Structure prediction request, 506 residues.
Amino acid sequence: MSKNKLLITICVLILSIILGILSSFSLPPYNFYYINFITFPALFLIILNNNFKVNFFIGWSFGFGYFISNLYWLTNSLTFEEIFKPLIPLVFILLPLILGLFYAVSTLLFSFLNSKKDFSSIILFAVILSVVDFLRGNILISFPWNMIVYSLSNNYESIQILSAIGVYSLNLIILTLFLIPSTIFLKTTFKKKFLISSLAITLCLFNYFYGSLKINNYNKNTINKLPSKIKIISPNISLERFFNGDTPESILKEISEISEPEAKINTIFIFPEGLLNFYLRDLNYYRNIFEEYFSEKHKIVIGINSIDKDNIYNSMIMIDNNTNLIKKYDKNKLVPFGEYLPFEVFLKKIGLKKITQGYQSFSKSSKRELFIVDDIKFLPLICYEIIDSGKLNPENFNFDFILNISEDGWFSNSIGLHQHLAHAKFRAIEEGKNVIRSTNNGITAIIEPTGNYLNKIESTDKGFIELKEYRNVKKTLFSYQGNKIFFYLMLIYISFFLFLTKFKRG
Prediction:
């Protein structure tokens, strides 16, 4: 390779990193989604004019820039203990490099499969990107965080279609739309360019008006009064207090006082994950505190660790004011390194352990059951379980609310808190259910089935929000079909691609 060609390649790779960084600003909390109408066409045109060897590194560079600028906050979780601090530079670089490989594979596949420089190329590239995103989120590493579709999280009208098609299908469609401006530079007649642009604008307008109508219809739905008031608590207790030796008694009294219990009113209190730094078996030791603050008309939902034989679980429990256990759910999906240590036997020999409190990895449960109190049915989800589109309700339960508790203090007051909230918003729309979200050091919220925040508490504040009534919503198409709709849409796209390539040859 000549010096000039090498220099050009290096400049292209640097440009690709910059494009990835710019695209990350389309995600929450910035939500500059329109920047993707520049960055993705630019990426597409670059790989369209390079060979597959270079394209692999172009995609990798784009992905690295994208993920390093929207996932840097994960390193905050390594600052609480000295053993992890040396790993911060490694994790800061290594994780984006690993995730960037998904874009590298996408651009490489496109190079092998693409033979045209027309609209069919756009269809093919959008399909490949969305399929790789699906594999990333469901099969390969089960980490669907920050797909580009989440850049629409503040466009309420535009994301109502999630209730019908789900996040992966909308991701495919929005990738296609972001790529449309590149048609200006393709070998296509002006007539075709005009037609494609017109169809894209028509689709956007149709989706916007559909979303507006759906929101208006929701606001006309019947309002139901709840038999018990629901109080969602945001205690905002810093994680440093747990590491500095604050007693469980002081923590429990503080969160109880924040809750402001009313003895004569039926109330369900929702506390977040991570507040109790002891095991479920020890809960009875603190019975006097619960009896002091709460009455027989109260039920308390809270996160706690539990032990069953040799297994430790991250659990959500429901108790009464006498600490009697009413219901327990053990988390199904665990966070690598945060809740379990991959290759634990080997890595513990070299001094590594999981990041969160305790040295032994959590075990995962395989079933999810509803929490039912006063005929109100809650689907329990702990922390990152809210990010799994199409997997929340494998048993097809009939439930009223999605109940999500989380400890977001590991990531400080970062952009990650807003990204986490956006995932919860998308699940509310997909499932057509209110999401009740209680977090410690995160954003606590009640999210309506339209994605609207009925009420919320910012990560820097403490207090509670209440829910006394909710609107009826019919079960969504996506809640019936799940991610099968993505495969149906894929078939349509592939058929359209084959038609375009055959039509072109004809």
Observations:
- The longest strand covers residues 223-234.
